[in-house]
């Protein structure tokens, strides 16, 4: 009897990618064959995201594509959207199974149950988010040159625009021992770089079942990983500014394996809006963090998340954000157009911003981001940086990132594939890549 084929599609963040990879390994261990999502499969698993309205809409598009590829296949939805809106997902044509936050790591058993039962009624397996209090480690390897290693899940922050606490539950973490074990497993796969991921990784250390005592701090985690000899580079994904303590910044500055790259959510450059968002800092603290990074790592790349069009964001308050970001010594922006999320406080606030104004402001900040990134790249031309080249060939080129997250392009040469190389940054091409010469 031929092996049943399972295909995976991931929407959203690096954390979702790490979990999808773990789920795919679990089904392969049970005798299923993993196949590309574009091919004909017996089961299509879509790991969903619900950070924005666009992420919700994308699920329906992907589910429709899977249904068109094989109308007899089972379509399974897991992840954040599946936890928040299970009935809505179950109503999408072709969807057979919706699995919530605590059940998704039992995916293999649910798939086996699907094959054992008639395909008649969409099944929902979810629980109240207050019941989601255990931790499941995961990491992504095989699909990319770098690995995404999950160290923390959930969030205790009550930000008024965010559904993540409702989708992923309380803040909880992997044990230090298990993180180190996973990192060593990743190293055996000839992975050169690990990206640490989580919902709120700076809050690392809280145990399962609502235990708020930190077994270890995030600083202790990075110090322990830094001592592992087999991984060349670590990159810290998004970390809250109030949790990015100077001790962490100073450690990264001295580390040979943690790269000079930070992604620090801001969300607004207006203290008035930050208070409405219930963020745990104001712009002064944020500025202090950027200043500290620049003092000890002048070459560091600093990315910033920002939301435009939040309720109450007047033209004057948006200008305050724009001018704050314009003056801030950062490298690029991730711009999000505010969208109302059911169950959050923000949609009930006065001062709703017209969608056309939201889009206009978003465009303005994306233009600013492009200028910031260009300036950052230009500042490093003629310098030498270490690059990790990707495994794959792309249109006759190798691409990769420097330690400080500059996009690099080099004519294909197989000896540099998945290798760390020192290069000289020569010029910026028309696509925004920096062309380089290998020097070592």
Plain-language structure description:
The chain has 440 residues and is α/β, with parallel strands linked by helices. It folds into four domains: 123 residues, Rossmann fold (3-Layer(aba) Sandwich); 105 residues, Transcription Regulator spoIIAA (2-Layer Sandwich), CATH 3.30.750.210; 116 residues, 2-Layer Sandwich (Transcription Regulator spoIIAA), CATH 3.30.750.200; 55 residues, OB fold (Dihydrolipoamide Acetyltransferase, E2P), CATH 2.40.50. It has 13 helices and 20 strands. The strands form five sheets. It has a six-stranded parallel β-sheet with strand order 2-1-3-4-5-6, sandwiched between helices. A five-stranded mixed barrel has the order 16-17-18-20-19. It has a four-stranded mixed β-sheet with strand order 7-8-11-12. Strand 17 and strand 18 form a beta hairpin. Helix 9 packs parallel to helix 11. It is globular.
């Amino acid at each position: 009897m031929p092996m049943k084929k399972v295909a995976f599609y991931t929407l959203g963040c690096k954390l979702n990618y790490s979990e999808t990879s773990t789920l795919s390994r679990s089904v392969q261990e049970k005798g299923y064959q993993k196949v590309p999502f574009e091919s004909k499969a017996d089961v299509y698993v879509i790991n969903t995201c619900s950070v924005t309205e666009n992420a919700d809409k994308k699920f329906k598009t992907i589910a429709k594509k899977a249904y068109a590829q094989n109308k007899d296949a089972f379509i399974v939805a897991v992840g954040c959207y599946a936890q928040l809106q299970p009935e809505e997902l179950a109503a999408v044509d072709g969807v057979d199974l919706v699995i919530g936050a605590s059940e998704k790591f039992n995916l293999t058993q649910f798939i086996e149950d699907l094959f054992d039962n008639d395909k008649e009624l969409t099944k929902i397996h979810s629980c109240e988010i207050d019941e989601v209090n255990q931790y499941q480690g995961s990491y992504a390897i095989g699909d990319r040159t770098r690995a995404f290693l999950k160290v923390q899940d959930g969030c205790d922050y009550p930000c008024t625009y965010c559904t993540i606490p409702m989708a992923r539950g309380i803040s909880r973490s992997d044990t230090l021992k298990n993180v180190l074990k996973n990192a060593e497993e990743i190293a055996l796969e000839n992975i050169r770089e690990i990206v640490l991921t989580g919902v709120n990784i700076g809050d690392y250390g809280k145990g399962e079942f609502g235990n708020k005592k930190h077994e270890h701090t995030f600083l202790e985690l990075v110090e322990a990983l830094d001592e592992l000899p087999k991984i060349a580079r670590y990159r810290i994904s998004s970390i809250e500014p109030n949790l990015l303590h100077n001790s962490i910044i100073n450690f990264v500055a001295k580390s040979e394996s943690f790269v000079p790259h930070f992604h620090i959510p801001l969300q607004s450059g207006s203290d008035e809006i930050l208070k409405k968002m219930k963020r745990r800092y104001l712009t002064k603290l944020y500025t202090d963090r950027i200043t500290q990074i620049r003092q000890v790592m002048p070459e560091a790349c600093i990315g910033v998340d920002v939301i435009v069009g939040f309720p109450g964001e007047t033209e004057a308050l948006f200008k305050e954000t724009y001018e704050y970001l314009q003056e801030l010594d950062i490298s690029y922006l991730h711009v999000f157009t505010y969208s109302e999320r059911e169950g959050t406080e923000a949609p009930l606030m006065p001062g709703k911003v017209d969608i056309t104004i939201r889009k206009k402001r978003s465009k303005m900040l994306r233009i600013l981001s492009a200028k910031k990134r260009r300036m950052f790249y230009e500042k490093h031309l003629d310098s030498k940086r270490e690059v990790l080249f990707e495994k794959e060939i792309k249109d006759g080129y190798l691409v990769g990132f420097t330690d400080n997250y500059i996009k690099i392009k080099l004519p294909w040469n197989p000896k540099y594939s998945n290798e760390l190389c020192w290069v000289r940054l020569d010029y910026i091409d028309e696509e925004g890549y920096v062309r380089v010469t290998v020097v070592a």
